[in-house]
Amino acid sequence: MLTATDVVSQVVNRVRGEFTEMPGLKLTPAQAQRLWGLEQGACRQVLQMLADSRSLRRTRDGAYVLCPEQV
After folding, report:
1. Residue 26 phi/psi, 5° resolution?
2. Residue 27, H or E segment
3. Which residue of 8, 21, 40, 50 could cross-link 56, Cys pair, CB 3.0 to 4.6 Å?
4. What CATH number is attached to the domain comprising 9?
5. 1: pLDDT strictly greater than 90
6. How far is CA 56 from the centre of its chain?
């Protein structure tokens, strides 16, 4: 049985993988929410976790992109 932590970890890894596979990907939180079928709060949490770990960075217009170090 998966725990909530396992599910969050899987989603974080999936999102990180998508950005890594497509280095030019640039998504707003709303676009990311639709793309991955996540609830708004969960999507923002995942994106923030990836930004905190420096996998993603937030642009001036509020979108998320892969950090240059990750390319």
Report:
1. -140, 115
2. strand 26-27
3. 50
4. 1.10.10.10
5. no
6. 7
The secondary structure of 9-67 as a DSSP string is HHHHHHHHHHHHHSTT-EE-HHHHHHHHT--HHHHHHHHHHHHHTTSEEE-TTS-EEE-
**Residue 46 has what pLDDT?**
96
Look at the chain and count its residues.
71
Tokens for 38, please give them.
């996540």
Provide the token pair at 61.
């217009």
User: What are the structure tokens assigned to 50, written together?
Assistant: 């990836």
Question: pLDDT tens for residues 17-47?
Answer: 999 999 999 999 999 999 999 999 999 999 9
- Cα diameter, the chain: 40
Helix (H, G, I), strand (E, B) or coil at 12: helix
> Domain limits at 64?
4-70
